[in-house]
Design brief:
Number of domains: 1
Order of helices and strands: EEHHH
Number of helices: 3
Number of strands: 2
Low-confidence stretches: none
Shape: globular
Helix content: 25-40%
Distance between the termini: 41 Å
Mean pLDDT: 84
Largest sheet: 2 strands, antiparallel
Strand order of the largest sheet: 1-2
Radius of gyration: 15 Å
Strand content: 5-15%
Structural class: mainly alpha
């Protein structure tokens, strides 16, 4: 099975103002394929085998888009280093002060 590689970019072109905030672009996958806030509210599934880049590729692009739009959520960290990665991601987007950590 041939896998297609996508390069995620914050914005591929200048966007026109949108009438509904839910139609704002979170991630542009190609010039014609984009993920909007509306898509995120409807549900997102990322599938792939171990090591295929689910977290570091599409997952990171979507998370960064949500953080850039001032949105929040709950992140359950399982792998060692996940919390530190989220801290760095939040710092890079100016959202460090929004994080709340709970430790078991």
């Amino acid at each position: 099975m041939k896998m297609r590689q996508f390069r995620f970019q914050q914005s591929l072109q200048v966007e026109q103002p949108v009438a509904d905030l839910l139609d704002e672009t979170l991630v542009s996958f190609t010039m014609n394929d984009r993920m909007t806030l509306r898509n995120a509210c409807e549900g997102v599934g990322i599938f792939g085998s171990t090591g295929s880049g689910k977290t570091s590729g599409s997952g990171r692009a979507i998370a960064d888009g949500l953080l850039r739009h001032g949105l929040g959520g709950v992140v359950l960290c399982v792998k060692p280093g996940d919390a530190a990665e989220w801290l760095e991601r939040a710092k890079s987007l100016g959202r460090e002060s929004d994080l709340i950590f709970f430790r078991s």
